[in-house]
Amino acid sequence: MVSDRKFVEGFQNRTHRICSFNLILLIGGYLTLTSGASISSNVLGRPCDKWGTCSQNCENGTNHDTFVCSCLEDFYLANDNRSCSPNDPAIRVVYALRSSIRIVDITTKKPMIIVENKGQRVGVTVDVKGGYIFWTDITVGRESVYRSKVNGEGPIETIVDTGLLVPEGIAFDWVTGNIYIADSNRSHIVVCKGDGQVCTVLTITRQLTMDKPREIALHPLKGLMFWTDWGEMSSIMRANMDGSFTIPIVTKNIKWPNSLTVDHGNDRIYWIDAFYDKIETSKFTGEDRQLVNSDKVHHPFSLEIFADLIFWSDWHLKEIQSCSKFDCKSDIRTVVKTTTPPNGIAIFHPAAQPEMKTNPCEEKCSHICLLSANSGYSCKCPAGYKLDDTLRNCIDDETKAKILIGHDNKIKILRFETIGRYVDILEEMEITELNNIGALVYNPINDTVFISDLTLKSIFEYSFTSRKLSTVVDNRLDTVKSMSLDPIGENLYWVDSNRRKIEVMSLRTKAKALLSMEEDKPQSIIAVPEESTNWNKRWSNFKDEHEWP
User: Rounded to whole angstroms, how far apart are CA atoms 20 and 319?
Assistant: First the structure.
């Protein structure tokens, strides 16, 4: 290897340098760099077009093979004139084990327990400014997202506890305060406010689908998001953070993309593949794909990058390891050893979440605002709402299903929330004429609800429009705890448990009929009008075939 470097006079200072160089080193078909080295402009294009020229910002110089390296805010240029180091050297790694969340300083290497109790924790992300750690838990029946203060003080808060099946990947948008959650079993990505009060499901480009999204990485300053997909066609995808302009950027030679991360200073992504046991990198477009390490990676699960260092958790070694992002073969270091396979990791450092001068989402939307490219934004709505003509305010979507709950003499109307942490009660009404509601069934024909009252032993109809109650059946009833409506035939069915009867009434003629007398007490009924002809036909054929009387 031969290299020649000279500094161009007048450009030497602490934040940037101009260099010219010559370097050629090819290993296994990949352009490979050693520490402090860079790729010659004689190999491919201008210096800044090559991976490894500068740690962060790179600007081509006046001459063909000169360039300027500079660093992001809160970093300084090291003596090699290419590497960027944080002004604050205290770098901490948050990591998830099955039953605990911990944090470790990479210098002292002494872990501290933040949370320890039963669970199956997978993904982890951080809000550095707010001092929070978020994590996903895939415990069956308790699939949720939680958060806690990084110092371990205060309560563990449940952020999202409904609508999740297998929440694994999680990422924090430090500009808006939103969290992004990948649910592989539901094949979608959910975005929630940091307190979980509002959630929405991302809608991506129609021609593309999500199969099994696994991990998410964000670049809020550019409004971009990336995710790995473990589906039949494994891939790495890119979209704006509002879900628009979705494109696949890596689709070949990829099998189990467990995790990925964004190098903000270099406009690149890094990812790990647990099938091939390797770490790779590319530009945001998927171009300039480079192998980072495949020799000493065993079963990587989660990946992060900060400054010039890559960090990953390794299931096989039960370690969190680190190396240089440009030289990940000669100097791999153990950050911490664990007793169980480590899962998700995240970097806790102020410089890892650089501030945006202007928040495009500030006071723009009624419910939740998502960043987009070019400092753009989109307002989104939770389930049961839709945007009004301004595209900023969410209003009731009357076409969406709602839930009615009756108790005593009150009826609650709830939105059909699919994801979130709370119940959105649209309205609660008290009907003074009632005593003890036993069953409810909605009537879409005229926007009313049929109500049985166990104390009054009657069936009523309540109009949401006029707010008036009328009697439908007021005699011969006992305990009606289930009703069902056939809106096609306009018939109301109910079971009277104590009288062991199943009855029906025509809403058009008010005529009633006894359908069945049961030996046992019937408890519930449901009418399926679309299947009524087929059901009768199948029942008749069954009787004829077996020559029943």
Answer: 39
pLDDT over 90 (residue 203): no
pLDDT digits 0-9 by tens, 432-458: 999 999 999 999 888 899 999 999 999
From residue 74, alpha-carbon distances to 199, 306, 352, 533 in Å are: 33, 12, 9, 73
Q: Of 440, 360, 372, nearest to 406 (Cα)?
A: 440
Other C-beta atoms closer than 10 Å to the C-beta of 434 total 21
Pairing of strands 84-86, 345-348: unpaired
Token pair belonging to 535: 């059901």
User: What count of residues does the chain have?
Assistant: 549
**167 closest CA partner among 421, 425, 369:** 421
> DSSP string of 256-316?
-EEEEEEETTTTEEEEEETTTTEEEEEETTS-S-EEEESSS--SEEEEEEETTEEEEEETT
Q: Which distant-in-sequence residues (6+ apart) come within 8 Å of 113 by Cβ?
A: 100, 101, 102, 152
Q: What is the pLDDT of residues 128-182, one digit of tens each?
A: 999 999 999 999 988 999 999 999 888 999 999 888 899 999 999 999 999 999 9
The pLDDT value recorded for residue 177 is: 96
- Look up the pTM and report it: 0.79
Identify the residue with better confidence: 170 or 6: 170
Host H or E run for residue 341: none
Name the strand (E) or helix (H) holding 176: none
Q: Measuring CA to CA, how many Å separate 292 from each of 220, 248, 261, 296, 325?
A: 25, 21, 14, 11, 7
